[in-house]
Amino acid sequence: MDDITQQREIYTVSRLNLEARGLLEAHFPLLWVEAELFNVSRPASGHLYFTLKDTHAQLSAAMFRNRNQHLGFAPQPGLQVLVRGRLSLYEARGSYQFIVEHMEEAGEGALRRAFDELKRKLAAAGLFDVQRKRALPAYPQALGVITSPSGAALRDVISVLRRRFPALPVYVYPVSVQGADAAPGIVAALARANQEARCDALLLVRGGGSLEDLWAFNEERVARAIAASELPVVSGVGHETDFTIADFVADLRAPTPSAAAELVSPDAQQILHRLDRLAEALRGSLQRHVAQQARHLDSLHGRLTRRHPVRQLQQYAQRIDELDARMRRAAAQRQHRAADRLQTLRTRMLAQSPARTLDARSKRLALARHALRRAMSDQLETARGRLAGLSRTLSAVSPLATLERGYALALQPGSLTPVRDAADVHIEQALEVRLARGTLLCRVEATEDAT
Q1: pTM for this model (two decimals)
Q2: How far apart are CA 79 and CA 418, in angstroms?
Q3: What is the torsion angle, in degrees rounded to the nearest 10, for the CA atoms of residue 349, residue 145, residue 261 and residue 226?
Q4: What sign has the CA pseudo-torsion 226, 227, 229, 234?
């Protein structure tokens, strides 16, 4: 019995755990493990104790204070992490554990931290400043859409643009919006759109997804390409609750791709209503101008009826002709300017809206213009008739008409004072006798009283 006892090697628990620990640490080098944190605790010592688990197994782990004090995040239960360490055994309890030397967030947590860091960096560089953002054109001549050609975002944008302004040209710059090729493709598309300069604004859009799906729109090179774009950029990435770095750098952020198309495109119906209001205002302006000229003509006519001398009548008649000519020229100039303005509006609408609607508006304006010309002509003819009647009335009561009937007018020499009484002249006095045609210079030889 004693021989058998002497042949056996008897281990203590401490020795067994120590050797087992040595075997584990010697056999396994530093390892990377991805797992979910569970049962996280931090006692007063500052060490971290937690469990690493996946769907099938779990592993006790520890991270000592000298290793965890520089972590850039707070380890929480449920957080997915990537840890580097060595396999060991805790001798006091004989428990198998993983000693962590380095820990970082894995999956979306790391992406969120990278997102926040880049956001702070670009904000400090001024890429989010409101002052550098450009205003969108009120009436763009063409739009560019940077997105996947097979995605729902492009269909939504095209649908909105067809509804709001079907005549607006749209250029699609196809890119991948997810994966390793997405960011360089977006940067190249922005450069190409700026080089071609066919558009007035660019829409950078894609549908919703996870943070990882949208990551191409959070890369620094994409943000700087948006900031460097000479064309205004509208971002419509994901759903309303999704925010990307591209949204902060873009000149305008839309909550969805459809909303981006709404914000950048004009409404054709509103433009047509505005043209109708402009045409109505033009007609009213012309009518007021004609009425003002008619009142002025009536005022001139009233002033003429209060004066009888032929010379003043002739001067005012000439003045009326001049005013008539000026009024015609002014009306013609206004009509020409109105016609030019209407032609400009017609040209713009032909380029931006359905031609049939514009043609109908143009015909209505032409009819209104013809009616205005006819009304002006009728009023001018009426004014001329009234002037001619007044001229005939004035001629009938004029002293010159009396002279035409054989009478003569005796005047004091050197003045226009008529001689009405023989007692007002003396013998040998010179007189001017005005006939219907010519004047006689006479000398008084005798006078007779009217009795």
Answers
A1: 0.44
A2: 123
A3: -110
A4: positive
Residue 100 — pLDDT band, cuts 50, 70, 90? very high
Residue 89: strand pairing partners: 96
Measured CA to CA, the distance from residue 204 to residue 102 in angstroms comes to: 39
pLDDT at 185 over 90: yes
Using an 8 Å Cβ cutoff, are 202 and 193 in contact?
Answer: yes
Q: How far apart are CA 290 and CA 292, in angstroms?
A: 5
- The C-alpha atoms of residue 417 and residue 410 are separated, in whole angstroms, by 9
Taking alpha carbons only, the member of 19, 100, 21, 26 closest to residue 59 is: 100
d(CA 418, CA 311) in angstroms, rounded, equals: 19
Position 221, amino acid: R
- Average pLDDT for 151-177: 89
Judge contact between 78 and 28, C-beta under 8 A: no
- Give me the residues paired with residue 418 across strands: 411
Residue 101: Cβ within 10 Å count: 14
Single-letter amino acid, residue 116: D
**In this predicted structure, what is the pLDDT of residue 433?**
86
Pairing status of strand 252-253 against strand 233-237: parallel
Single-letter amino acid code for the residue at 237: V
Written as six digits, the tokens of 258 are: 């459809």
How far apart (Å, rounded) are the C-alpha atoms in residues 253 and 244? Answer: 10
Whole-Å CA distances, 404 to 222, 389, 397: 100, 21, 12
Which two three-digit tokens encode residue 185? 């493709």
Longest dimension (CA), the chain: 200
Residue 350 identity (one-letter amino acid): L
CA distance 287 to 61: 92
pLDDT for 334: 84
How far is residue 190's CA from residue 251's CA, in Å, rounded to a whole number?
Answer: 14
Query: Where are the alpha helices (H) located in 125-164, listed in sequence order?
Result: 152-164
Query: Cα separation of 373 and 248, whole Å?
Result: 57
Number of helices (H) and strands (E) in the chain: give both, helices first.
Answer: 13, 13
Burial of 265 (0-12, 13-18, 19+ CB in 10 A): buried
CA distance linking residue 262 with residue 270, whole number of Å: 14
